[in-house]
Design brief:
By secondary structure, the chain is of the alpha/beta class. It is 47% helix and 18% strand. The two termini are 25 Å apart. Bound molecules: 5'-O-[(R)-(carboxyoxy)(hydroxy)phosphoryl]adenosine (KG4) and zinc ion.
Length: 355
């Protein structure tokens, strides 16, 4: 079956074509970075309006790339949540419009499920069960993944997500939006250790085994240092390096501890912060020491994309052909701006069908 995947949960319009027999056939992305840059962050209304402009041209692009026509589609998958309500509604409306016109199912997918299953698309040797570290702009979670739809939360952030901490700290250092990659670049030219930042909840983990995170104190520590005295370029790079080192150390040690506690040997890293070079190095070194395998999607698929949405829909529909298909003509359709991943039990598909 040929599945069109549409991702519009935040500031990237992503569209992809996935064929259940032949794999990923086409992928196209439009990033709204320049649109939001002047405002220092994502403006939800601008994001929604831009998704309206981008999704259909991107759909045409992926069809042309792969030599297919719209009539070949067997299903349209879209991000149903979590994310910005207006942005989600754009993808959902287009998916349901296409589904209705073509008389094919429109399938709502959880954004984080898309991220956490995406390494399976690129690493066919990867098998359930595994531990997933989901680190994006809105989420920092460790999950035990037993199978499709079987996700158990092992730890999550009490406050800021890892990507959010990167973005807010980058803004403070005058690096603009989006901050994560810019802060990582600055950090790579600096030296950790000159400044002394906390490693939140690491000691606590050593005492209690707690796998939760807290990153807002780290940001406050950076603000305090930053306000104490003016920093020159080298000091700013050193502060960025210490900040990156602190976040990465916490993420890597907790991910490795999650593997130890569960007795599992495979780690999947997903979400935008998974693109961070230092995090990859630390996890690779820890994995080698302890005999764990660490898997990532390719860099361009770490951040938001349509391929992960089409692929998650393919897996879900293989498991249950009626999976989360809303009859939009009869019942309309909904998006879920707030939506816990743990709610996605495999058994929930029957419920979703009747919703
Ligand atoms: O998964 P994603 O594309 O979107 C969300 O669902 O949030 O993740 C975006 C987040 C942003 O916070 C961005 O700053 C962060 O991932 N990010 C990075 C890097 N690349 C992206 N953070 C640290 N280092 C990077 N290289
Ligand atoms: Zn994401």
């Amino acid at each position: 079956m040929l599945i069109l995947g549409i991702e519009t949960s935040c500031d990237e319009s992503g569209v992809a074509l996935y064929d259940t027999d032949r794999g990923l056939l086409g992928n196209a992305l439009y990033s709204q970075v320049s649109l939001h840059a002047d405002y220092g962050g994502v403006v939800p209304e601008l994001a929604s309006r831009d998704h309206v402009r981008r999704v259909l041209p991107l759909t045409r692009d992926v069809l042309v790339q792969s030599g297919r026509s719209i009539g070949d589609l067997g299903a349209v998958a879209y991000t149903q949540g979590p994310g910005l309500a207006g942005a989600l509604l754009v993808g959902a409306s287009i998916a349901h419009g296409l589904g209705y016109a073509l008389r094919i199912p429109a399938v709502g997918i959880h954004h984080l499920e898309g991220h956490l299953l995406s390494p399976l698309l690129f690493t066919p040797a990867l098998r359930f069960p595994f531990v997933a570290l989901l680190v994006s702009g809105g989420h920092s979670q460790l999950m035990r993944v037993r199978g499709i739809g079987q996700y158990e939360l092992l730890g999550e952030t009490h406050d800021d997500a890892a990507g959010e901490a990167f973005d807010k700290t980058a803004k403070l250092l005058g690096l603009g939006y989006p901050g994560g990659p810019a802060l990582a670049r600055l950090a790579d030219g600096g030296r950790p250790g000159r400044f002394n930042l906390p490693r939140p909840m690491l000691e606590h983990m050593e005492r209690t085994g707690d796998l939760n995170f807290s990153f807002s104190g780290l940001k406050t520590a950076v603000v305090t240092l930053f306000n104490r005295q003016p920093l020159d370029a080298i000091e700013r790079a050193d502060l960025a390096a210490e900040f990156q080192c602190a976040i990465v150390e916490v993420l890597a040690r907790k991910a490795l501890e999650a593997l130890r506690q569960t007795g599992l040997t495979q780690l999947v890293v997903a979400g935008g912060v998974g693109a961070n070079r230092l995090l990859r190095e630390r996890l690779a070194a820890g994995g080698r020491r302890s005999g764990y395998d660490v898997h990532y999607p390719p860099l361009e698929f770490c951040t938001d994309n349509g391929a992960m949405i089409a692929f998650a829909a393919a897996l879900r529909m293989q498991q249950d052909p009626g999976f989360r298909i809303q009859d939009s003509a009869k019942d309309g359709f909904t998006v879920r701006p707030r939506w816990d991943l743990e709610e996605l039990k495999a058994a929930s598909s029957a419920l979703s069908r009747s919703s």
